[in-house]
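Dear Dr. L.,

I hope this message finds you well. Following up on our conversation about the binding site, I have prepared a predicted three-dimensional model of the protein together with zinc ion. For your records, I am including the exact sequence and ligand specification that went into the calculation, followed by the structure tokens. Please feel free to forward this to your student if that is useful.
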Amino acid sequence: MRDIINGFLRFQQDVFPARKALFKTLATGQTPKALFISCSDSRMVPELVTQREPGELFVIRNAGNIVPSFGPEPGGVSATVEYAVAQLKVTDIVICGHSDCGAMTAIATCACLDHMPAVKHWLHYADAARMINESKNHANEKDRINGMVRENVIAQLNNIRTHPSVALALAQGGLTLHGWVYDIESGSIDALDAATNKFVSLAQHPTSKL
Ligand SMILES: [Zn+2]
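The resulting structure of the complex is given below.
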């Protein structure tokens, strides 16, 4: 904890004064253009891998980068998606999974989660992805986990389309969805390509979108 507090002290002393103008502008409003939904994993830092400044990304992070389908009792993720789309009018939503994801590994390896009932319940929002991934042949466990990470991004893209605010924005042509998977070891990103419904290198296909 001491490291975290020391980090804040450095921020206050060195970083903040150097960027005072930016923070003054941000003090009275935000106009992020994108909603970025990723895992809570400490190794996947949206602002770092996309090189965004404060004020540029509206972010949701949770275990497994999951977006529950819209339902009669919307929770925190649904409210945050709605605020981003209906109020902030973001033009793009990125759902970004990542390699070595603990949540997706637990699903893909059928790990017992009885000691973590909340996690067990939460990961049911990835059931569609689990069913599809289990129906496929995988060369080994690593392949099965990588497949789960990718199927989960696709499933959560399907889930987010059930949100009224998202459905409306998509129908009006004011919103674009993106499905990404970040590889921790190589720093590369694969993006879901609408034309082929396959993941392709974002570096080689920078305009990939759905
Ligand atoms: Zn994860």
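In brief: Residues 39, 41, 64, 98, 101-103 surround zinc ion (CB under 6 Å).

With kind regards,
A. P.
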